[in-house]
Each structure stands twice: as structure tokens, then as C-alpha cells.
Amino acid sequence: MSLILSIDTSTTVCSVALHRGGALAACYELFTEKSSSGMLTTLIQHTVQHSGHQLSELDAVAVAKGPGSYTGLRIGVSTAKGLCFALDKPLLAIDTLKAMVWQINGFYPGSYALCPMLDARRMEVYCAVYDPEGRVIQPTSAQIIDEYAFADRLAQQPVVFFGNGAAKCRTVLSHQPNAVFPAQIVHPSAKTVGQLAALAYEQAQFEDVANFEPYYLKDFVGTKPKKLVV
């Protein structure tokens, strides 16, 4: 029975979970307005210790690979790789958006399409479109949201827009009868990363720990420091 530690730092939410044989054994999540990934190692310690296990007992470490926050992904993946090297355990990488689909797919029948969205800059989101079984309908992309976004898909079927980027979509697509917006924000979570990781573990879908990189989707763009006026 596999024991897998899962990490998700794709957004400002820092999430750690432990799954035993695919069942959730423990989970800690920290919700803050700013990045909370600096608390990651503390959450890992609490999750493992409070479940009655030790890090040495792990069979694998899983991480949400992106898309998402550049800094958050970098911290999460670096931590996961460090654990794999130190413990000599395999690494599993799970698509952040697909793991989000697993949070809500049981609430919507097969006629719906599910579109997880993560906030990017301005009117842009990172998104993909899935069916309720988790099969990709439209691959991951950086999408500019305007009144024409998803027009072809919405003409065919109801689409559920969810995640912290869905608010941008609601303001311009609420007039569309097939556009569905859940009442609550769905945040990426290590809970569903771990569920998918258990399946990936059974199929030995391991990553090359030394060379694995997060799926940033877009290059990091830093802000230029302002000139000091004296």
C-alpha cells in the first residue's frame, strides 16, 4: 500500500497531503492573500508527524507541476526534489489544472465541460477544458478573456468555469446561458494531487528528479525597480 506525500504551491494557497493507498490520511492547507509557500516545510512536518508516520516511510513524493505562480511552483518543485534526493524516493508530477477538475467532476454530469482557471496578469488566465472523466478537450493555454472567449465551446455545451481566475470570466461571460460559475472558489489542493499521484504511482509514471522542471507555461517577467527620486 503506497504512502505518498503530495505538495501543491501553484497559487498563494500552500497545501500538503499524505495519502495511504490512495486514501487521504492527513492534510494541511494554508490560505493567505500573499504566497504562503515559505511555510511549506513546516506543513510537511506537521502532515507527516500528525498522521503517525515518518518521512523515511514514504514511497514517493508528488508535486503539482503547474501551471501557476512562477515563484510558488519553483518552491514546491525544489522542495519535492530535495525530499526525493534526501530520501531516495521517486518523484511524481501532477498537472495542477487536472487535479482541480478532480475536486468538482462528481458534481456535474457528462454533458458539461469543466474549465479550471488560474489567475494570470490583467485579463489573462491559465486554463484548459476537460470532460468530467478528466480527458482533455482543449489543452492548457494562456487565455485572454473577452466576450468572445470560449464562444465555440459555449455554443456546443454548458461549461463550468472555476478557480481563482474564473471571476474575470464571469464579468464578461455571465450573459452566456451555457456559462456556469460555482458559488465558491476552487483552489488547487494537494488532496486531489495525491489522488492522481496514487494512480500515477501504480503505473510507475516517475519523473527524472535531476532534470524535472515545473510547467511554467510562460516565462517569468519581473518588475523593474523604480528610480529613487531625491
From TrEMBL:
Residue ranges annotated for the Gcp-like domain, each copy included: 35-219
Cross-referenced CDD domains? ASKHA_NBD_TsaB
Q: Name the domain of life this protein comes from.
A: Bacteria
| EC number in record | 2.3.1.234
The alphabetized UniProt keywords are:
Acyltransferase, Transferase
Give GO terms: molecular function aspect only: tRNA N(6)-L-threonylcarbamoyladenine synthase activity
Q: Which NCBIfam families match?
A: T6A_YeaZ
Protein name in the entry: tRNA (Adenosine(37)-N6)-threonylcarbamoyltransferase complex dimerization subunit type 1 TsaB
